[in-house]
């Protein structure tokens, strides 16, 4: 039968969107496809609507075909679209509804579309799946994202070197100028509550690079501000927008790495998050002491940040699987004119209320009701606060007590950074050797993260006591500086293992758990610098540092207790993700 005869004997079906029928959408194939036929279908059927293009030529037939020329607008239809005409057929001339051939049986169409039109990966080796990205590209992306995180955390502390200059220029006390650090860190804590839902709706790349771009722009007003209010406001906003990459990068790394390699990538990312604050005072002290002055700390931050923003914009791809599949579904709908093709994300009905519940109320509820989250968050917030307290403590310990110049008194941060690197190497070794064997045997549990955290918990008070009782100016400076390496290693082990423990415990609720943790860490880190100088002046370096050592020593039972009783506590959790093994 030639094509003309075929068209004379076949009805006409057009794939169009029917807005009147998309009120309840449990089945996309029924709600998005409108059939236009003649005698084979009832004239006033609930799923039949005649439009102008089909009503001009009603045919008498029990067969159903796709009117490709009418809907696509071409005289010679695409072969794939012609084969799609077999997707709809009638069992007999009296059939009232068409039967649906599975998408996987349609030649030329992707086999990863389910019968109801929901798109998924085309097998485990689908190259569009970010998990199958080339290894070199994954690590290039990791390095770029880590450098973006470095720029942001670098900006959080570089301002500390200009506190005296800022106080003198705007005629305020040093404590008031310290608000420039505290407000920035407070923005860190508040930002994830905004950027968390943003990343789930629009993917990873948009919030990372939008937030980072605004962060870069906000460095300029700081450099040219003529009053303290402007400086403080912009510092807070810089923290809020700078939190966007920090809130989304860990998710982007989780999108492309498996459970073992993800630990290594997260260690690299976390190391830069902590090395950034340690590097800020080193660079900033030399800039502030030079003819450039404190304003150039903002200019330097802006220049370096704009560079990595531009590089990352072209190198880092979108990694969030639901967004990638949604975009593929949209492309296929327009290419095939089959409007039933969709992704799982298209099936979700997201409202502002549901997002507010997930990212605002749920973190607070979890923080109050979950003992694991509450105690680990208190531990990490304390450690994070002590890190930022050092930006005020080091100038006292090495500048005032030992009489070093500001540029020289910032150099012990190099030893602190070395400790952070060593701690990261220890965490990497643990992930590669210990965790890999556990994962392969299927016996990995969240509590397996805690031994390394306990080691870090012991290293930190040891380092603080060491720092305290070698601070006497009559004792050579070497042991006191070496102690900061031990402190840095302890901070890194506590933080990276604590965060991964929270993620492993709460699994699908980990976004809310980490958001609660980030908020509390931001509050603690913004508060600690405000009383650091007064504490070190009144108690002295030895007893002030000893107080911090006793504080961290009192928190060591937290990971020890969860290592012993964690499984029982998880079993009683109100959140269903608790109590499951990590596979």
UniProtKB/TrEMBL annotation:
Keywords, in A-Z order: Membrane, Transmembrane, Transmembrane helix
The keyword RNA-binding appears for this protein: no
Entry GO terms, CC: plasma membrane
InterPro entries: MFS, MFS_dom, MFS_trans_sf
Transmembrane segments: 139-159, 179-196, 208-226, 232-254, 266-292, 298-325, 372-391, 411-429, 450-469, 481-507, 542-565
Domain Major facilitator superfamily (MFS) profile: residue ranges: 141-569
GO molecular function: transmembrane transporter activity
Recorded topology in the membrane: Multi-pass membrane protein
Pfam families: MFS_1
Major place of residence: membrane
UniProt xrefs under PANTHER family: MAJOR FACILITATOR SUPERFAMILY, MAJOR FACILITATOR SUPERFAMILY (MFS) PROFILE DOMAIN-CONTAINING PROTEIN-RELATED
Official protein name in the record: Major facilitator superfamily (MFS) profile domain-containing protein
